[in-house]
Amino acid sequence: MAKADIEAKKAQAKADITKAKADIEDKIAHAKADVKADVEKAKEKAISDITY
After folding, report:
1. Rounded CA separation 50/1 (Å)
2. CA distance 24 to 43
């Protein structure tokens, strides 16, 4: 019984780690997209500031 419990806990821990990694990768992807959008906005503002 104890061995089965340990195996189940190991499997759960692996699943938790995998989910955490996926969450972090998702957050990084969103942050990169946000930065890209901010850069685009800044570029557009700079262009409009120059042209006006």
Report:
1. 73
2. 28
User: What is the C-alpha to C-alpha distance for residues 18 and 6, in angstroms, rounded to an integer?
Assistant: 18
Tokens of 12: 């759960």
Q: Parse the chain into domains and list their residue ranges.
A: 22-52
pLDDT in tens, 1-52: 699 999 999 999 999 999 999 999 999 999 999 999 999 999 999 999 998 7
Q: Which of 32, 8, 11 has the alpha carbon at shortest distance from 19?
A: 11
